[in-house]
Q: What sequence folds into this?
């Protein structure tokens, strides 16, 4: 709980102020953050990167994924909800919501393709679970 309090005060609050407060730097520049991309996703993503560097690589497990069709179904449901959340944040069907829809869909697809390309580049076999990981790591 102490870590969460410090993380909230030192990481999340400054990022939220920069984006959402009327006096925030990005807000003054006209940046519109629909789904909390900077305070939530970037803040937690960079924090997770710092934690993973601090903790080191995980120990390899020889167990396969539990249920691959469930992984794919969950990813599809998540992607559908992700598009609805981001595009629906415009609160109307207008060019801004269309742009949010296209950007959200393109980001997920590009991340999936990048994950597959990295698997090929690193000599690992490509898999549907890897493709789902690529999609999910964009959020």
A:
């Amino acid at each position: 709980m102490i870590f969460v309090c410090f993380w909230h005060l030192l990481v999340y609050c400054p990022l939220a102020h920069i984006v959402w407060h009327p006096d925030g730097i990005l807000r003054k520049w006209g940046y519109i953050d629909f789904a909390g991309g900077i305070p939530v996703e970037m803040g937690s993503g960079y924090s997770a990167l710092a934690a993973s560097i601090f903790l080191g690589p995980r120990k390899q497990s020889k167990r396969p994924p539990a249920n691959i069709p469930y992984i794919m179904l969950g990813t599809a449901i998540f992607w559908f909800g992700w598009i609805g959340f981001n595009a629906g944040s415009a609160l109307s069907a207008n060019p801004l919501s269309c742009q949010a829809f296209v950007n959200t869909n393109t980001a997920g697809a590009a991340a999936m393709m990048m994950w597959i390309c990295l698997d090929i580049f690193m000599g690992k076999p490509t898999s549907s679970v890897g493709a789902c990981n690529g999609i999910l790591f964009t959020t």
